[in-house]
Batch of 3 targets.
Target 1
Amino acid sequence: MVPRSRRSASSSPSPDQSTPDAEPSPAERYAAAKRRAEVDRSELGQFRELLGFPLDDFQVEACQALERGSGVLVAAPTGAGKTVVGEFAVHLALASGRKAFYTTPIKALSNQKYGDLVRRYGADRVGLLTGDTTINGDAPVVVMTTEVLRNMLYAGSSTLQGLGFVVMDEVHYLADRFRGPVWEEVIIHLTDDVQLVSLSATVSNAEEFGDWLATVRGDTTVVVSEHRPVPLGQHVLVRGDLLDLYAGHLDPTAPGVDPPINPDLTHLLRRSNREEPGQPRRGPRDRGGRPRPGGGRPGGGRPTPRFAVVDALDRDGLLPAIVFIFSRAGCQGAVQQCLAAGVRLTSPAEVSEIRRIVEERCAAVPPEDLDVLGYWEFSDALQRGVAAHHAGMLPLFKETVEDLFSRGLVKVVFATETLALGINMPARSVVMEKLVKWDGSSHVDVTPGEYTQLTGRAGRRGIDTEGHAVVVAHPGLDPVQLAGLASKRLYPLRSSFRPTYNMAVNLVAQVGRDRAREVLETSFAQFQADRGVVGLARQAQGHAEALEGYAKAMECHLGDFPEYAALRRTIAAREKDLTRAEAQARRAEVARTLEGLRVGDVIEIPVGRRSGHAVVIDPGGDAGFDGPRPTVLTIDRQVRKLTVADVGTGVRTVGFLRVPKGFTARVPAARRDLAAALRSSVGTSTGPTRKDRPKGGQRAAADDAEIAALRRRLRAHPCHSCPDREEHARWAERWARLAGEHDALVARIAGRTGSIAAVFDRICDILLRLGYLERTTDDAGRSALQVTDDGRWLRRIYAENDLLLAECLRRGIFDELDAPGLAAAVSTLVYRSRRDDQGEPRIPGGPGSRLGVALDACVRAWSELDDLETAHKVETIQPLDAGLVEAVHRWAAGRSLDAVLKGSELSAGDFVRWCKQVIDVLDQVSQAAPHQRLRDTARKAVDALRHGVVAYSSV
C-alpha cells in the first residue's frame, strides 16, 4: 500500500486550518476543533511545542503517517524543512523507549546533525558513529554515516537491538555511482519492524521509488512537495547590471513552460556580445557548427571580474551569497581577486568577532603548520567577509567557513558543487559563474537537476521574502536555455546498485546463495530494470511490425533480393576488415618507435597536439599491445604520457640529455630547469619534420581474392540487372539496420531480466575460483555454497577494492612492513589522483626496499584479479595509484606537514581527506588481517597517521 500526496505551491490547508473563503458551519467548527484536540494530545502535538514554529502541510502529513506506524518517503526542495520529519522519528523513538538511527551520506553532515540533536535532547541521549569518530555509540539516538549502519547489519551488531526508526537523509544519494549501493543494502536488510524515514530532494519518479519501498519495506506513505517555502527569482548579471530572466508580466516564481524572456536582457546580451573586444560576432560553436548551449568556449571571452560580481550583489542587497565556481583554483583565485581589489564587507565589530572565532577554532593547529596551510591569508579573507569552500581545503578551515557564514559574518563564499550536498548553509543569493563544468574528462553542461540543487540554497526561511538565483553573463549564454534549466526542477532517481565481493560473502554466510539471489532481485536497480522491460517489449513489437513492411518493400520479381543484399553487406564488411587490418599494421609500426626509449632521450613528435621536442623521463616499462607509454617533459614544461595516438607516424630520437638523478616531475623548479636544458639542446632545430603516412589501404581491397570472388557472384545474381535495384537496396539497408537494432533490443530484454542476480552469480564464481567460497550440500542434499576461513576475513573488509585488499592480506604481501610502510602500501588501494600525468611516484627506500617489493606484489595481484574479472565479465577492481605513497610514509614516520607536502601538488585538505580514508581501511585491516602481528601493525599505523591536522575533529 503506497498512499501518495503531491503538493504544489497552492497546496490545501492542513486539517487544523480552515479556508477563509467561506464561514464554516457549527458542525464543521466542532469537527475541526476535535481534530485539533486529537493532534494536541498526540506525540505530534508534543513535538510541535518543542519546535516553536508552525509546521507545513507536507510535514504534518508525513509526521501523522509516521505516528500511524507507516514508513515515509518525503521528497521536497532544499530548504523546505523535510528534516523535521526525521527529527519527529527521533522524538517517537525516545517517547516509545526504542532506538533511532539518523544516517547521512557524509561525515560533515553527520557532525552537523549530531550537534543539532545534542542541543535538543542532551549529550547523554545522542551518539555519533562515523569512520573516525565514536561518541556514545550505545545511546538511544545515534547519528552515523550510512556505511556504518550497513557494516552493523552485516556484522549482526548488538547495537541494532531495540532499533525502531531509521532516518535516511539525502536518500537520493543512492544514485551515486561509487557509494550509492550502500543505501539500497541498508533498505533491503533492515528488519521489518523498523520504520524507515527516507528524505529526498524533489525527484520526478518519487512515486516509482515509493512503490519499490512498499515492495521491500511494507506500508509506505509518499509525500511530495514541490513548493519552495521561500520563492526563487531568476536573474542574469550583465556588466554589473542585474536583470530579471523572465518578462515583467510573469510571476518569476512560477514561470510555467517556455516562459517569455525579458526583452531588455536579450537586447543587453546581444549588445554585450557585439561590443566584447577581441570576440567574434558569432556565438561559440561546437565542431558540428551548432551553438554551445552552456557557457561558450571554456575560457573564452572576458569574464566579469569576481570582485565586480560581489560589488553588484552588495549594491543590490543580495548578500550573503554563495558563488559556485566549478574549479578549486577558481575559488581560491576569486578570493585573491577580492582581496587585491580591496573588497571589505564587514564592520569593525564583525572583524573582531571573526578574528576571535577563527583563533579559537584553529588553536589546535600546531604553530609550525600555520604557514604551510596558508592560515594568515585565510584569516585575512574571512575578516573581510569572503572565503573559499572546496574539497581541497583543510576540514577545519571548511567548517570555520560554514560556521561564520551561518552566523552571517562571512558574506560571500566561492564554492565548488560539493557544497550543494546537505550542509546547512542557506544564503539570500546563489550565483553561478558558468553553466558548464568539468566532469573529470570533458566540459559538460549543467543539468536541470544540478541547477536545482545548486540554486536551492537561495532564500533563508524566516529571513528572506525571496531568494535569488543569479547567472553571470558570459560568452555563449543562451537565456532560453537558462530558462529551461530553471523551469525543469525535477530529475529522475536512478539506482546505481551492484553486487560486491564483500556483499556476496556476507549474503551467502547469512542466508545462502539461493536466498541471496532472491534478496538481490528485490533491489531498486532490478525493480527499475523490470519496469523498463515493459517499454522495451513494446518497442520490440514495433520493430517486428516495421521489419515486415521493409521486407515487403524490397521484394524483387527477378530473384531473392535479401540474398543479393547480404552479398553486398558481406563485401562491405570485408573491405572494412581490410582497412582495419591496414590501420593496425600502421599502428604497430608507430608503436615500435616508442620501444627502446631511455631516460634522457630527446625525441621529436612530428604531428598532433603534442608536436615538437620532448625529453623522456620514464620510458614506460614493458611494451603492451599498443607499445609502451613513455612519460616525457615538453619544452613548455608539461609532463605528458605519450600513446600511439599522440605521435602520428612515430617519434624520432634526435639527441640525448642528462636527466638529474632524483628528478621528480612533481617539483615545478625541477621541471623548469630540465625544460630549459631541453630548449637549449634543440635550439638550432628547424622544428619537427612531418613523415608522410604510407599509402596502400585502398589497394588491399582491389588485390583481395575473396572480394573478387564475391563481386563475381554479385554481378551474376539475377537481381543485379533489376532496374529498381537501388530502390530495393535502400529498403534492404533499412531492414538490415533495424534487424540489428531489434536483435540488440531482444538481448537487452533478456539481459535485464534477472540482471543483478546474474552479476552476483559471476562474482560468486570468482570467489569460488579463489577459495573464498566452496561448494557443499545442504540438508536436503542440494548443491550449495558456504564461506571458507578466507571468506570470513573478507566479510570484514568494506573497502572499495575489497577483493584486492583481501588477496594482499591472504598472500602475506604486507606481513613484513612496518607501520609507515603499511600505511603507504594501503594508500595505493585508496588514493585516486585527480590527474594522470603526475610522472613516476617516488617509493621511500627505492624499488628494492620492503615497501617497494610489497608494492610490486600488489601490482601483480591486481593484474591477476583484473584478468580473472575480465574472463568473468565483471568490472569492480580499481587500479592502484602510488601517488600518495611518499606523503603518507613521511607523515606516518612523524615528519612535519611542511616536509610532507613539499615538492607535491597535493593540497593540505586533500592530504587530510585521503589520510582519513587510509585510516578507515587500516581499521578494517586491524580486524580482518589473518595474523596478530599484522593486526598490531595496522593499529600502530592508525596511531602514526592520526596526529596533527589529521587528528582534528569538530566534535
Target 2
Amino acid sequence: MKGLKKQQNTMTKLAIQLLFLMLCFSAWGQNTVQFPLVKNGEIASIFIDKKDAEVVRIASVILANDVKNVSGKTVATHQNRAAHQIIAGTLGKSKVIQQFVKNHNIDVSQIKGKWETYNIQVINNPSKGIKKALVIIGSDRRGTAYGLLEISRKIGVSPWEWWADITPEKQQELVLNIENKTYGAPSVKYRGIFLNDEDWGLQRWAALNYEPETGDIGPKTYAKVFELLLRLRANTIWPAMHKCTKAFYHYPENKIVADNYAIVIGSSHAEPMLCNINAEWHHETMGDYRYDTNSESIKSLFKKRAKETANFEGIYTVGMRGEHDSPMIVGEDDTDAQVKLLEKVIADQRQILRANTKRGVAKPQAFVPYKEVLHYYQSGLDLPEDISLVWTDDNYGYMRQLSNEQEQKRSGGAGVYYHTSYWGRPHDYLWLNSTNPVLMWEEMTKAYEFGSQNIWILNCGDIKPHEYNIELFLDMAWNIDAFKNDDSVKNHHLNWSANAFGKENAKAITDLMFQYNQLAFQRRPEFMAWSSVEPVTKSGETELTQYHYGDEVGKRIQAHQNLISDVNEIQKNIPAYRKDAFYQLIHYPITGASNLNLKWLYSYKNKFVAAQGRESASYFATKSFDAFKAIQKETDYFNNTLQNGKWKHIMTMEPRHLPVFAEPTATIPLKEKTSTLGMALESYQMEVNDAVINSYADVLPVFNAYTKNKYYIDLFLKGKDELEWEAVPKANWIIISKTSGILNKNHLEERIWVTIDWDKVPKGENRKEAPLGHDYQLIPPSFKVNSGIDFISKGKTTHIGVSVFNPKLKELEDYKGFVEDKGFVSINAENFSRKVDGKEAKWTTFNGIGYTGNVSVALPRKANSETELEAIKQNSPILEYDFYAFNFGEVDVFLQAIPTHAPNNKTGVRCAIAIDDAEPVIVDFQTFGRSDAWKQNVLKNASLQSVKQIVNTAGKHKLKIWMVDAGVMIDQILIDFGGWKKSYAFPSETKM
C-alpha cells in the first residue's frame, strides 16, 4: 500500500508539472504569434492609407525592398488582397487603422498622443480573406515609419545595409515571431547627427561620385542620409555647413526631401535661425556680420529663413556667434556689453519666429553655450525658459557643463551636442573614429541624469567611419534604460557584431575593438606626432619612453602589430557577402590607426637608435615608410576598389594635410669601419661603452623578489660586417631568453630578456654595501645578491651586472597588497584592498575605459559633495590600498583621473587622499577654459595631480582615497619615493 501511495504521489506531481508546462506554452503562444512574411510561395503584402504621411509610404517601400533583398520575393504594396498582410498607419491619419482599432477593440492608450511611439501586433482573421494581419499603429508619422522599419530589423536588415554595405543574409522563408508590444516613447525627443568638416570626405564623394549632377551634397545625398536616420530611429539633422558645401536651403528640394522623410532640420551653434553664415553671408551686398552695427541686414536673413521654413519641422538655434566658428564681434569688449547684445539678438529672433508661426504652434528653439557663449551664459545671460539649453562637450568627449537643479526645471529642457570628430586646437581628429564608446556612454548617461533629455546631436564628421558610435549614440537616445550598467556598451557591441558578422565572430570582434579603443584612449592616432594646430606645428618629441619600463614605444608597436594580425585572422572567418562591410567597419579603422601609430613609433625608434650608432636605424626607417605606404594602399582600396568605386572620394588619409599624416623622414648613422657588438640596457639612454667614465650603463635595474621583474638588453650591430655573440650567465639563477646569435645586414639587432629563477637565487644578507654600478632605483643597499652576464664577441668580453633584492621578509610571506619597487609604488585604482561605502555614495568600477581598462568611480552622481575634512572622513566612501615600503620620508602621491568637468558650479572633480592616519588632502582635477592643462589632459585623456605625503617608516602602510565630488573617476595611482623616471604612462602595477 505504501508503494502504491508513493506511486500515486509521483503521478500527481508529474501531472501538475505537465499542466504547468502546458500553461507556460499556452501563455507563450498568446504573447508571441507567428506571422509568415514569405512562406511556401505565399508572400504577404503591405497596405497603407494613401492619405497617410509621405514618410509612411517611403518606409513601406524601404521594407518591401528589404524583403526582396533578403528573400528574392517581391512584396505587393498598397494592396489588401493577400492572405497575410502588414497593415500600417498613423492614429488619426489612417482610416484603415481607425477601423482596426474600432472593430478589434485595440487598446491604443499607450500610444495615443505620445511622441514617436508605435505598437506591433498580429490579429488573426481580422476580415474576410485575411488570415493574419500584422498591424503597426504609430502615434505620429515617424512612429509609424519606425514601426515598419522595425520589421526590417526583424528580418535581419541592418540600418547600415547601404551606408556600410552590410548585405542581408539570404533566406528562402521569412516567418516572424511577433509579440504584442509597444515601442517608445523615446528617451530623448530630438535625436540626430551633425554633418561637419565634410571638406575631405562626404562633400567630395557627393560632388564627384554620388551626386555629380548637383556637384554637391544635395537632395539625392540627403535622401540617403535621411533613410539612414529613419533606420536608426533618429529624427534630426544639422546639415553640412562648411564653405565647400552650399547652404542646405540653397537647394529648394532639400527641405522637401527632409519633410518627406520626416526629418527635423536644426543648425549648429554658429548657424542662428537655420542660416548657414559661412555660405549665406555676403559682405559685398550685406555688410559686416555685426549685430551692433548691422542688425537690420542680419534680421533680413533671419526673416527670410523663418518665412521659408514656417511650414516645416525645425529647431531654431537662437543667439549668435561670429563667422567661421569664431566669437561674435561687438564694439565693446567687456562681458556685460556682449551679454546685453546677445540678449537683444535672442529677443529679436523670437519676435521674428512669432511673426512667422501659426497661432498656437510652438517652434522649438535651442541655445548652444559653446566656447565663449558658455562664458556669456555663466555671466548672467537672461535666457527665456522655453528655450532648450544644448550643453556641449569640450570637443574631446568631456561634457563642459550640465543643468543644475534650477535649470532642470526649465520648460524648454536641455540637450547635448557631442563630438566624435573635431577640427581645432590642440589638435584635430578628423580621420578615424577614436572616441572611446564607454566614455561616450558615461558622459551621455550623466547628461541624461542631469536633465539633458530634449535634444541629442552627434558631430560625426562624414558619417564614415563613425558608424558604430553613431548607432550607439542613437540607441542610447532611443532607450537609455537599456544602458544602465557599465557592461551595457560591451553587450551592445556584442549584439552589433553578431548582427553584422555572425554570432561566431562577435566576441573576437568586440574584444578587438575594445583593445583598439583602449590604445586610442591612451593616445588618439591623430595625436601621435606630438604636434599641434592653431598654429600648426611640426612633429615634436614623443613622451613615450624608449628605455624605461619595458620600452613604451616598443610595447605600443607590439600592441598595434597584434591588432593588425588579429583583424586579418578574423577577416578569414567573415562570409564573402559581408567582407566589404567588415573592411569598412573593422579592417580599415584598425589597420589605418595601427599603421599611423607604427609610422610614428618606428620613426621615433629610428631617431633613438641612430643616436646610439645602431645599423638598425635604417631598418626602423624602412618600417616607418612601409606603414605609411600601407595606409596609402588601404585608402586607395577603400576609394577605388571597394564596392566597385561606390565610395570613391569618401576616405582621405590626410585631412587638412597636417604633419601627422605626412611621409616620414629618417635619420641614418654614419657607417662604422669595423663591426662591433653594441649593447643597450633597459633604463639607460646611453648605450654600454668603455669610453665614458662612470656612465653606469652596464648594470641592469635591480630585480625585486616581490615584483618578479624582467628587463631587456638590446644587442645591435655597429658596422656592416657580420658578427657572432655569446652570453654566459655567471650564476645559475640568471635566465636569459637567448645565449648566442649572429648579427648581420639581415638581422641588425636582437632584444634578449633577463629574468630570475627565484627558486634558486639565495637570500640576500642584511648588510650595508656599496651600490652596484648606478643602483639609483632607491632599493635599500642591503639584502642584495649580485652577479652578472658576460657577453663575448670577436674576442671581447663585456660584463653586465645583475643585482637581485631578495630579503625574504617574514612579514611579506602572505602579503596581498602593493610593494615598493625601484623607489615607487604603482597601483591600478580598481585593485583596491578594501572599500567602505559612504553615507550617500559608494565606489564602483567602470569597465572599458582608462589606461588600464577600468576606473574607480564614485556614484551616484547626484550625491552631495563633501568639502570639510571631518565631513569627508565621516560621510564619504573610501578606497584603501595596502602597500609596503622599503624606504621612508616625504613622497609624492600622483593620481591620474579621467579629465571630466564638473556638471555645474555646485560641485567639482575632486577626491581626497591620505597615507595612514594623516588628515585628508583634497586633490582637484578641474580645468577651466582652454588652458594649457586642459590641452594636455585631452591629448592624453588623463588629468594628473600630485600631493605630498609622509611615509614615516619602512614597512606596511595604507593609502586612503575619499570621494569629495561624485562622478570623479580615478584611473591610476603612483606613490613616488623619488624613483619614478620619465614615462608617458605610469609603470606597471607593483602588486604582489
Target 3
Amino acid sequence: MSFRIHVNDRPFEDAPRAGQCLRTYLRERGWFGVKKGCDAGDCGACTVHVDGEPVHSCLYPAVRADGRSVTTVEGLASREGELHPVQRKFLDAQGYQCGFCTAGFLMTTAALEAERGTAHDDGKLDDLPRAFKGNICRCTGYRAIEDAVHGVQHTERPCAGKSVGRNVGAPAGPEVVTGRARYTFDIEVPGLLHMKLLRSPHPHARILAIDTSAALRVPGVHAVLTHEDAPATLYSSARHEHPTEDPDDTRVLDDVVRYVGQRVAAVVADSEQAAEEGCRRIEVTYEQLPYVTDPEAAMRPGAPALHGDKGPQARIARAADNVAGEVHGEIGDVERGFAEADLIVEDTFRTQRVQHASLETHGCVAYFEPKEDGTGERLTVRSSTQTPFLTRRALCALYGLPEDEVRVVAGRVGGGFGGKQEMLTEDIVTLAALKLRRPVKLEYTRAEQFYGATTRHPFTIGIKVGARADGTLTAVQMRVVSNTGAYGNHGPAVMFHSVGESFAVYRAPHKKVDAWSVYTNAVPAGAFRGYGLGQVTFAVESVMDELARRLGMDPLVVREKNIIGPGEAMHSPIGEEEDLHIASYGLDQCLAVVRTAIAEDTSEQDVPEGWLTGQGTAMAMIATGPPGGHYADARVSLLEDGTYDVAVGTAEFGNGTTTVHQQITAGALHTTGDRVTIRQSDTDVVRHDTGAFGSAGTVVAGKAVLLAAQSLAERLRTLAARHTGVARHLCVLGAEAVDCAGRTVPLKELYEAGHALGAAEELGADGHWGGSPRSVAFNAQWFRLAVDPDTGEIRILRSVHAADAGKVMNPMQCRGQVEGGVAQALGATLFETVRIDERGEVTTAAFRRYRLPQYADVPRTEVHFTETADAIGPLGAKSMSESPFNPVGPAFANALRDATGIRFTELPVTRDRVWLALEQARAAAGGDPRPVGL
C-alpha cells in the first residue's frame, strides 16, 4: 500500500496498521502532544488539524490522512520557535492546570481563529459553548480557558524576592502549550511489551480453574499471569503514610472475585491487539457466589460476607458483617439535648458514586535501568501517581525488594483528584516486568477507569438536629453509612474523616455519631476531593438551612450563632485531634462576602416570566492536612551557573505546587522564579515524601521547601562573608549576586568559592516538615438560581465563593483551584453519577453516558479571598485544593429549596428529578401552578 503523510511539515511514508486511528499513528512517531483521554471523540484531548480542519484523531482513521497535511500542537509554533498567538494567549492567561486537555483546546481555538473573516467563519469564537462542545477540561472550570481565548493576561513577572503573593506563571507553561510536557506515557521505551487485563463478568465468584493455553498460542503473547503467579500477600491499594489506616484485603490477582470488573488475569504481548486477543481466549471456570450491592442489606445477618475468610491481620473491623470500619461516639447526652429543643429537624440524605474523570487514565510503565554504580539493574516504574514514594514502599514490601532496587517516578500527571492516591496498576505491571525482565506498559482505557479504578464513596446520612427558638443548637446526631464497594481502600479513613470537621464546625453541647464503612459487591470507592466531608456537609448544611427556614430566621444568622470562633476547641464525637488548631480564622469574612453578595445582587432581573428564583448558602471547614503525620523532605542547592535547584518529592497534576515551591524559593533567596528549577515526584531526588494528597502540596511540601531555602540563604550569607571578609550581616542576597558591603559577588563566583574553601556542603540545605501541627481552612458558597417549573430546567444566575486560604501564595492559581473545585462539585450536584445495575455492574462507562460538565454547563464563579495569615502554614498559607468542593452541593440544594419550597435530599438533582418533584408538589396542592410552601 502506498501511503504518504506530512506531519508538522515532516513527511512519513510508513503505512498505518489496519484499523489504526490517527491518534495512535501520530503518538507512535513521537508526537506526544496528541493525548488519549476517551477513545470515543468525547473529550477533544486528541484534536489535531488535517489540512487545517480540527478533527478528533481518536476517531479519524489514519488511512484517511493519506496525501494530507497534519498539524499537531507541536507544529503550531514557527520553525524558529516563536509561539503561535493562541499558544501565547493560553500561556499569558494560564488557561490550564494539569494541561492534559490543553492541546485540544489550543488546536480547536487555533482552527477557529484561522477561520476569522473567511467564508468558513460561522461565529463559533463568539459562542464558546458551541465552539468547545467537543472539548472537556476537568481542572479549570473553564474561566481561565475563556480568558485565554479572549486574550486576557493574568501572569506576572515580579522582581527579585517578590514572587510570593503574585500571579507567577507555572514553570511548565511553555512545555504545556507546545506539547513538550511529558506525561506518563510520553516516552519511548525500546522493547516495550503491552499488558491487557481480563476482568470478571460476575459480581462474586470463586475461580475454580483458568485455562491459558489458547491465549499463550496467540502470536506475540509472552505471558499470561493468574492468581497462581501472584504473591498471596494481602495489602491495600490505598496509599497512606501509615499503611495500617487501611484494611489489607486485596491481592494482586485473587482466586475470588468480588465485583464485575475485578481483574482476573493479565496478558502481556508485543502489542495491545495481541494482548486483547489473548484475554479473549482465556477460559475461566467460576463458581458463582451470592452477592449484595446494598450496604444496609450487607450488614444484616445472613448477608454474603465478602471478606469473611480474612483474619484479624487484615484489620477489617467486622469481616463477618461486611463492616470494613466503624466509629461510634457521643459528647454529652443527645436525648437530653433533643428534649431541650424547641424544634427538631430530621431527614435522610444520599450522595452518589462520582468518577474522578482525570483525563489521563491510570497506568504505568515498568522497565530496567543500569544502576549508577554499575553493579546491575534496578526496576524503574513510571506511573500516573500522586504518591511515588508510598508506591515504591508498597512494591518493595509486596515483592521483597530493597528500596534501592526500585525507583518510582511520575512525569507530569494529567489530573488526580485523589483517584491516584492508589496503587491500581503498578503492582501487576511490576509482577510482569520481574517475571519477563522486559519493559511492560499498562494504560487503562476510559471504560476501565469507570469499572476498574475507584469512585467517590456513596453515602447515606441520617441527621437529626435540635435547636431552641432563637436558633441555638442543642443537639446534633448522625447515622452515616458509607459504601466502600468490594474493597476497603480508604473506606474507614473516609468514613472517619467525614464526621470530623463536619461536626466540629458547629457548637452544640450534645453530639452523637454512628458511622459504618460497608463492603458491597460493587466497584471499589476510594479517595476523592474532600475525602468524605463533601457528602456529610451536604446533609449538615441542608439541615441547618431547613432549621433556619422552619424557625423563620435568616440561615446566615443561624450559622453565625452556632459556628465555632477563633481560638475555640473543635469538638467532634469521634474525639479531639490534639494537633488540629484554628491557627487563623476567616469564616466570619467568608459569611460576610455572602451577605454582601445577597444585598447587592440584581441577577433576578433577567429571569424569564414564570420562572422561580431562589438563593442559598453553605459553608465548610477542612483540616489543612491529614492526621497522623504527612512528611516531606526538600533540598535546595546553588548550582555552578548561579541558579538554584529545588528537589522535592511531591507530584504536579494541576495542583500548582510546582509554581508555589518556585515562588517560596525565589522569595527566601531573593531571586526570580526563572532562576529556580524544580525536580520533583521522583524517589531519586529526596529521601521521602508522603505524597500530593490531603491538600498537602503547599502546607507540607511547601513548608519543607521554605525551611530548606531559608537555611540555604543563611549558609550563602555566611559563605559570602567568609569569602570576602565582610561582616555577615552586611552580605545581602540578590537575584544573581550577593552584595557584600558594596562588593558584588556573583553567585557563580560564590559557588566556586565554596569548593575552593572546602565548603561545598554549604551550597545546599535540607528542609523537613512532618505535617503537624495542622490548621483549618474555611469556605462558603452562594448561588442564585432560576427554575422553570414547567420543565425542571435550572439556570445559575450567580455563583459566589469565599475562601479562607490564609496568605494566598498565587492568587491566579488559587482562584483556578477554587473555580475547578466548584465546577467539579457542580457536576456531582447536577448530573454526574456512576450508575450500577442490580449486579453491581457499571452502566455508565463512557463520558457520553456519564455526563461531565462542559463549557456551557459551568457559570463564571466570583472568587473572594479573606484577609488572614495562618500561624502554622508556610508564610501564612493554608490549603485550598479540596475544600472548595464541599459547600457547593448544599448551597445549590438550599437555593433550590428557596426557589421551589422543596427540600432535595438526594444528589444529583437532575432536571428530571426537579421536574418530577415539582409535579408531585403541584398534585399535592391540587394543581396549583406553584409548589407547596411558596
